[in-house]
Amino acid sequence: MTNPTLAAGPVERHLRARRDTGRGLLMPYVTGGITPGWTDYLRAFVAAGADAIEVGLPFSDPTLDGVTIQQAGDTALARGASTRRILADLAGIPEPGVPLVASTYYNLVLHDGSEAFCAALRRAGVSGLIVPDLPLHEADELAEAAAAAGIELALLASPSTPEPRLAEISRRSRGFVYAVSLMGTTGERAALAASAAELTARIRRGTDRPVLLGFGISTPDQAREAGRHADGVVVGAAVMRRVLDGAGPDDLRAFLATLRRALDQECDAPR
Questions:
Q1: Does pTM surpass 0.90?
Q2: Exactly one of 12, 51, 65, 152 is catalytic; which is it?
């Protein structure tokens, strides 16, 4: 097994410290610019017990996103959201107390160039990055620029990832490894995919870096089940559907608190 602590940055150190107390990790997602006061959601997430927050930088052609996240991105873009405006919003708020992890598509990185893009993230107080459409064999330039700027580039692994590639993803990922629970797009689902348990077990054989499970986790029961396999969960579509339906920060705090309790109950359950 690798020893990633030697290269651990603030995202990984934060998640490791919480995980090592027996806590299940919760990382909710919000699309930047989705509402006029969208940064209020960040405070609500922290109040609900989030351990990190994923902030989506909307892109016009989100190939891996399902209907809900696509609608959220379209809504934000229609409001005039852009990478620069979202990062300016983040730079203008107090530090939330948990790591902020940006997620976006590689086209937006290329638009500014890897070095400038990562430097802008850092100035805004972002310390992690997810780029789901970046092929592993083309990740060197961005990985180097991210490391130089103090940004941890987290890589994704899916149920179809072959073992040699999975080992490389586990070794090169920073902050955490993002385990994609199923082959498909983001979105709420009735049950946790059966492939989730096997994937997380495969990842954990190659690294002790935190493993967060995403794609389709929508309910406390699903969060509790995911907590049996992964170190934590990423919750996006279930959050953004509520925002699109008009939910405010207090509503989201109440919803995420139910997931927080479910993760805590799973961690407290006898083994």
A1: yes
A2: 65
